[in-house]
Amino acid sequence: MAMEAHDIEALIRVSFPNARITITDLAGDGNHYAAEVIDESFRGMNRVQQQRAVYAALQGKMDGPAGELHALALTTKAPA
């Protein structure tokens, strides 16, 4: 089952309520997205730590072959 961009944003927003979040459907199929998440809480974290935090916010939606979200290309950073 495919996910909508607003559903992905809503999941991320629970963990990052003040983040600037941009979700882009890369293939138009509801399964391949890119997300940019800019949040102050990322300051001092390396990129892997930032991305793990975002994946954790997805609450298992990407887990295994039966996951609702097939692919998510992440860009994460603290605000400039």
UniProtKB/TrEMBL annotation:
Q: Give the SUPFAM superfamilies listed for this entry.
A: BolA-like (SSF82657)
Q: Sorted alphabetically, which Gene3D superfamilies does this protein's record hold?
A: BolA-like
Q: Enumerate the Pfam families for this protein.
A: BolA (PF01722)
Source domain of life: Bacteria
Q: Say which family it is in.
A: Belongs to the BolA/IbaG family.
Q: What is this protein called?
A: BolA/IbaG family iron-sulfur metabolism protein
